[in-house]
Design a protein that fits this description.
- Helices cover about 55% and strands about 5% of the residues.
- It is mainly alpha-helical.
- It has one domain (about 1-120).
- The protein is elongated and about 65 Å long.
Length: about 120
């Protein structure tokens, strides 16, 4: 009986960890779409206040990351952090100093989608 319970519990935890990871990967993909609107050289159509930053080189768009990526660690901590790599610090500066939209707004806009992903729908 204890082995059956332990197995069932492990499977449940594993399923939740997979859902968390899938949700984060989906969130990042959707956010990358929001910051992927092109502003080609000579950069005449930059984003305005209240918009997501527009893409110039694509570095900021590609610099979103998450950790941990290990399902074992996620199952232990129930936490996944999402953010930009260090060299893309300017993406958050655009939010805090130039009133562009960022990860928090993207998360707010995706609340329903996030909930569906977590439910496994």
């Amino acid at each position: 009986m204890d082995d059956d319970f332990a197995t069932a519990w492990f499977e449940l935890e594993s399923e939740v960890a997979v859902r968390l990871l899938r949700t984060v990967v989906d969130f990042i993909g959707e956010h990358q779409k929001k910051v992927g609107i092109s502003n080609p050289n000579p950069y005449l159509t930059p984003s305005e206040e209240g918009e997501f930053p527009r893409k110039r080189t694509g570095f900021g768009q590609a610099s979103l990351t998450y950790e941990p990526a290990s399902l074992d660690v996620i199952r232990q901590t129930w936490e996944i952090r999402v953010g930009y790599i260090e060299n893309a610090f300017y993406m958050e500066l655009l939010v805090t100093h130039f009133n562009r939209l960022g990860l928090e707004e993207s998360m707010r806009q995706q609340r329903d989608r996030i909930a569906q992903n977590l439910k496994g729908e």
